[in-house]
């Protein structure tokens, strides 16, 4: 995945990997790369290739952009219910020390006002089909949210303390709030001149 970016060539440099969420990010600077930024996954690491003369601020911005683009690209592949269950178990292990194991996790098409729901007595989690195609970190946030509900009902302080362990909670909530806000905007007609 490549995108054009500003910056002039200079000597190549490689940054040590840094952890972001569940994987490490390694930034590689290249004197031969003058205008593009690209990224790819290599095992559990993400490699971001940038022009050598890019500033630290530009680097941080482009790393974020490329992580989001990779996540969106990966989440376009719709996970099956079995994969969702495996993912929930992995998230439970990572963020809740495996204290909660859902009996089932599945997509449903009858949740148009909620992103997810659960039934603690059964240990089941349901995710709205509207999440399909959203970035991976957003789907993971909803799974973590519902896993937390299997431990703590309601949205009290104890519940929110559990969610603090997921590092992209605020970002995912902002994304979902943006989706809701966009859905509420009036749809303006497109004229021939705007196409």
UniProtKB/TrEMBL annotation:
Q: Which InterPro entries match?
A: UTP_pyrophosphatase-like, YgjP-like_metallopeptidase
The UniProt annotation puts the region (Disordered) at 1-37
Note the superkingdom of the native organism: Bacteria
- In this chain the YgjP-like metallopeptidase domain maps to 86-176
Query: Pfam families attached here?
Result: YgjP-like
Question: What PANTHER family does this protein map onto?
Answer: UNCHARACTERIZED PROTEIN YGJP, UTP PYROPHOSPHATASE
Name this protein carries in UniProt: M48 family metallopeptidase
Q: Which organism is it from?
A: Streptomyces albipurpureus
Q: What taxonomic ancestry is recorded?
A: Bacteria, Bacillati, Actinomycetota, Actinomycetes, Kitasatosporales
């Amino acid at each position: 995945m490549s995108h054009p970016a500003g910056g002039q060539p200079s000597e190549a440099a490689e940054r040590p990997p840094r952890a972001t969420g569940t994987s490490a990010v390694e930034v590689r600077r290249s004197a031969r790369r003058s205008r593009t930024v690209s990224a790819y996954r290599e095992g559990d690491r993400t490699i971001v290739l940038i022009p050598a003369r890019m500033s630290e601020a530009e680097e941080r911005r482009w790393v974020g952009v490329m992580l989001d683009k990779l996540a969106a690209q990966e989440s376009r592949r719709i996970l099956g219910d079995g994969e969702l269950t495996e993912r929930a178990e992995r998230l439970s292990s990572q963020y809740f020390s495996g204290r909660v194991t859902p009996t089932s996790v599945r997509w449903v098409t009858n949740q148009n006002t909620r992103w997810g729901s659960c039934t603690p007595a059964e240990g089941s989690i349901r995710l709205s089909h509207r999440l399909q195609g959203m970035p991976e970190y957003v789907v993971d946030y909803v799974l973590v949210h519902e896993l937390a509900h299997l431990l703590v009902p309601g949205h009290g302080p104890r519940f929110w303390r559990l969610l603090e362990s997921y590092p992209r909670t605020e970002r995912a909530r902002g994304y979902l709030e943006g989706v809701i806000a966009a859905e509420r905007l009036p749809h303006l007609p497109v004229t021939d001149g705007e196409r």
